[in-house]
Amino acid sequence: MDIALILSAVIAVIIILVGLGIYNDIIARHNGVQRAWSDVLVYERQKTKVLDQLQKVLADFMVFESSLLEKITGLRSAINALPAGANGNALTNVETASREVMGGLRIAFEAYPDLKASEAANNMMREIAEQQENVGAAITIYNRNVELFNNAIEMFPGSVVNGLFNKKIRVTPFSDTEASQGFSYTPNA
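The line above is the sequence of LemA family protein; the predicted structure tokens follow.
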């Protein structure tokens, strides 16, 4: 009988330790998602700083391209309106506005190549493109962290531990519907 009691105690300790490990893993993955989202916000806000400088340079262009200023202002507002909490859906408007601004800038520079500000503006466009690449990389990392977190809270035994203790909810990854419309392939569900 002493062996059965000792064996039961060892099994109970193992179950508790495994449960604590799963609980801590869920918390760590949730924190990873929040950190990755913060990185996306940092890159978007860095892009805002470059846009502020670009806005000054584009004052020379405003005679030719008044709508571009509105698009840049709208993009800055969209970036500043991103929530502090992880939300892949909120990033859709910002990425669409970024594409519109970049397209408008390319058209403006091609139409008016002799403007004195064009070289500075071209340098800033390269900086914005680099910032946009950073945002893309941060989104990739964010979506990977979201996948790992969602798997941790939805798959057994993490779903049991999460249901009993953490009560964390599924996080929405970022998806670009505009980009996905260009593909005819869809994975089998």
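Note on the example: The chain has one domain: 2-171. The two ends are 52 Å apart (CA to CA).
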